[in-house]
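Q: What residues go here?
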C-alpha cells in the first residue's frame, strides 16, 4: 500500500481536513479533490522560490491557507474552525513542544476526528545513533513552553547524525557501512552558534521507534495531558511508521510494560544494518580532536 493510502485510510475525503507542512509533497491535495486547508511555514510562492533548482516538482506545492512559524497552531487558524481530520507527515519530530501541538490538534478536531501521522523510525534514518525520546523529555518541553530547540538538542542532532553508505535513510533490508553524517566537530560548532544566537534551527528534536512513540502517547493519556484513542497503527515501512488517533478518550488500555520492553528491544544495537570502522586506523580517524569538547564546555559556560 502506498504511504498516501496509509495516511488517508481513516479519513473522510469529503470532510473538512487540515494538512500540516506538506511542502512539496502533499498527501491530501486540493488537486486530488480533498476538502482541505493547508498550513505551512511559508506561502506557496515562497515555498516555490525555496525549492526552485532543487530538482523537485514545485508545481505540486499547494496554495497555503495558513502560515505557521511557531507558537500555538490554534492562533493561526480561523477562530472556532473545527476539522474532521488532520494529516501531519514528518512533522512531529521537528516541533519544540510536541505535547502542545497534540493538544492543539485535539482542540481543533471534531469529537471523534482523526489525527493521522507519519513518523520517521530512528532505526532507519540519520537518527540511528541517537537515543529514543522519553515521555519525560516531552513533558519537560511542555512545562518550559518551548518555542525553539535547546542547545543540547542542537548538539545531539548534528553530532550524532549518521549515514549508511552515504544515504540518510534506509530500510530493514539495508546493509552497509555506518559513518558520521557531518564533519568532526560540526556538532560543537552548531552548539556554539545555538548558545550565541536566537535564530531558529530546524532539526529532529524528538526521535522515536514505534514502541517508544506509542509508549509516550500512552503515558501522556494516563497523565491527563492528552485524550487520544489509537485508531490504527502500521509498523515501519521503509524508514517510517504510521499511526492514526481519534479525538476521544482511549477505548482500550495498552500494556505499558510490553510497550517499554518493545522499546528496549527496538533500541538495542541494531542490527545487522550497519558495520562500523573495523581497523585501528579508521577508529583513530573517528576519535575526537583534543580540545573539541573543552571548547564546547567553554561555550556553555559563556552563556
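A:
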Amino acid at each position: 500500500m502506498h504511504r498516501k493510502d496509509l495516511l488517508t485510510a481513516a479519513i473522510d475525503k469529503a470532510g473538512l481536513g487540515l494538512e500540516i507542512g506538506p511542502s512539496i509533497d502533499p498527501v491530501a491535495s486540493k488537486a486530488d479533490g480533498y476538502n482541505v486547508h493547508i498550513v505551512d511555514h511559508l506561502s506557496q510562492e515562497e515555498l516555490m522560490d525555496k525549492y526552485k533548482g532543487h530538482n523537485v516538482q514545485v508545481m505540486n506545492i499547494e496554495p497555503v491557507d495558513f502560515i505557521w512559524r511557531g507558537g500555538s497552531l490554534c492562533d493561526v487558524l480561523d477562530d472556532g474552525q473545527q476539522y474532521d481530520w488532520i494529516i501531519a507527515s514528518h512533522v512531529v519530530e521537528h516541533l519544540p513542544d510536541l505535547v502542545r501541538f497534540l493538544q492543539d490538534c485535539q482542540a481543533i478536531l471534531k469529537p471523534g476526528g482523526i489525527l493521522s501521522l507519519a513518523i520517521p523510525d530512528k532505526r532507519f534514518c540519520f537518527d540511528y545513533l541517537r537515543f529514543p525520546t522519553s515521555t519525560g523529555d516531552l513533558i519537560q518541553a511542555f512545562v518550559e513552553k518551548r518555542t525553539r530547540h535547546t542547545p543540547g538538542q542542537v548538539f545531539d542532532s548534528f553530532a550524532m547524525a549518521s549515514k549508511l553508505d552515504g544515504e540518510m535513510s534506509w530500510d530493514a533490508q539495508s546493509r552497509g557501512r555506518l559513518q558520521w553524517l557531518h564533519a568532526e566537530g560540526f556538532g560543537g560548532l552548531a552548539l556554539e552558534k545555538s548558545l550565541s544566537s536566537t535564530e531558529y534551527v530546524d532539526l529532529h528534536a524528538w526521535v522515536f521507534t514505534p514502541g517508544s512513540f506509542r509508549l509516550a502517547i500512552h503515558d501522556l493519556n494516563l497523565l491527563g495531558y492528552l485524550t487520544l484513542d489509537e485508531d490504527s497503527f502500521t509498523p515501519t515501512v521503509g524508514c517510517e511508521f504510521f499511526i492514526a488517533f481519534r479525538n476521544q478518550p482511549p477505548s482500550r488500555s495498552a500494556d505499558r510494560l510490553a510497550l517499554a520492553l518493545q522499546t528496549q528491544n527496538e533500541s538495542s544495537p541494531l542490527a545487522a544494518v550497519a558495520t562500523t570502522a573495523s581497523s585501528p586506523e579508521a577508529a583513530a580517524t573517528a576519535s575526537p580532536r583534543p580540545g573539541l569538547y573543552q571548547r564546547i564546555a567553554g561555550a556553555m559556560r559563556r552563556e
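A: Context that may help when evaluating the design: Residues 278-297, 299-303 have pLDDT under 50 and may be disordered. The chain has ten helices and ten strands.
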